From TrEMBL:
<protein>
    <submittedName>
        <fullName>HD domain-containing protein</fullName>
    </submittedName>
</protein>
<dbReference type="Pfam" id="PF01966">
    <property type="entry name" value="HD"/>
</dbReference>
<dbReference type="InterPro" id="IPR006674">
    <property type="entry name" value="HD_domain"/>
</dbReference>
<feature type="domain" description="HD">
    <location>
        <begin position="20"/>
        <end position="101"/>
    </location>
</feature>
């Protein structure tokens, strides 16, 4: 599956700016990890891009709609990773792709939330600050902290290093993601 195909699928089911940005941020992080680990960058990026594609249009059926669509297109590895991107769904983590998606999804959204409440956004954001915010249950309360930790553990990465890696990836794309520092007169 090409990125263009994935983008068309995503935008056919998702119009929310925040969900589209979340899909893009997870896509970028997954692609960067694939490059770092010598994996298929397109496959990993597409998996990140499509992991929540059906969430807005079919919240009660998420992720079954996107998983079924991918299986119809013979994209089983991507479909399986998406079917497993929440530990409480009880799906096996068979591949590094499966583990990477679970490790990158929730924490990437949390890092974006941390950046959005800072005037300097991603500039100067450090892993220790993100970890401190994880301890504040009232901040980004919908983020499942257990999921963040379980994802890093499944992927076999140190949480602080993982967060630093993700921040670095997002900083490279901060203008596109609208996470650049705010101007003084904003």
């Amino acid at each position: 599956m090409t990125r263009q195909d994935a983008q068309e699928i995503l935008t056919s089911m998702t119009t929310s700016e925040s969900l589209l940005r979340h899909a893009r941020t997870v896509e970028l992080v997954m692609e960067a990890y694939a490059e770092k680990l010598g994996e298929d960058t397109t496959k990993w990026a597409v998996t990140g891009l499509l992991h929540d594609a059906d969430y807005q249009a079919h919240p009660d059926q998420h992720p079954h709609v996107i998983v079924s669509l991918l299986r119809e297109r013979n994209e089983e590895e991507i479909a399986h990773a998406i079917s497993a991107h929440y530990t409480k769904w009880g799906v096996n983590y068979d591949t590094l792709l499966d583990k990477a998606l679970i490790a990158c999804d929730e924490v990437t959204g949390f890092i974006v939330a941390c950046a959005q409440v800072r005037p300097q956004r991603l500039e100067g954001l450090e892993a220790k600050s993100v970890i401190k915010k994880l301890g504040q249950k009232s901040f980004a309360a919908s983020v499942d902290r257990d999921e963040v930790r379980a994802g890093a553990e499944l992927f076999g990465v140190d949480l602080k290093e993982h967060i630093s890696f993700i921040i670095g990836v997002l900083q490279k794309h901060q203008e596109e993601l609208q996470l650049s520092p705010q101007l003084k007169d904003e």
